[in-house]
Design goal:
single chain, 135 residues, mainly alpha, Nucleotidyltransferase, domain 5, globular
Length: 135
């Protein structure tokens, strides 16, 4: 594993991309459900996460418990869920937020509603100004 990979606190501090991404997905789904959303689109640049969320193929992987938890949440808390793969270049907001998340204090979760921090607004403005290419 490289030092550039994020640490997943629910994976006992092991660096694991799929565990960290699935944990972030679970947290986002729970926040969406808490806000009363019924129809959601999960968009990720991780083909592994897309495969894991759309099939049982990854359920026995080291991050399988997180994949199963995310699928359970999607099946029970929402009326409609789409899982889409996008390129990293089209997922710049999530990538920017992940960079911030890597350096934050794990004891203080970063969930913002209104107003959003300036750096989040800046990421959104840059993303909306870039041409979008979907696969």
């Amino acid at each position: 594993m490289t030092e550039n990979r994020p640490y997943c606190p629910r994976c006992y501090g092991r660096p694991e991309i799929s565990g960290a991404q699935s944990h972030a997905c679970i947290e986002a789904l729970l926040i969406a459900a808490d806000r009363g959303m019924q129809r959601v689109i999960v968009e990720t640049d991780s083909q592994t996460l897309v495969k894991a969320l759309l099939s049982d193929e990854m359920d026995r992987a080291s991050s399988g418990v997180f994949f199963r938890e995310a699928k359970f949440i999607m099946a029970t808390l929402f009326s409609s869920v789409e899982v889409l793969h996008t390129t990293r270049s089209c997922n710049s907001v999530a990538h920017g937020l992940a960079q911030v998340g890597r350096s934050r204090d794990l004891g203080h979760p970063g969930v913002w509603m209104n107003p959003l921090p300036t750096f989040v607004n800046d990421l959104l403005v840059c993303d909306s100004a870039e041409p979008q290419v979907h696969e």
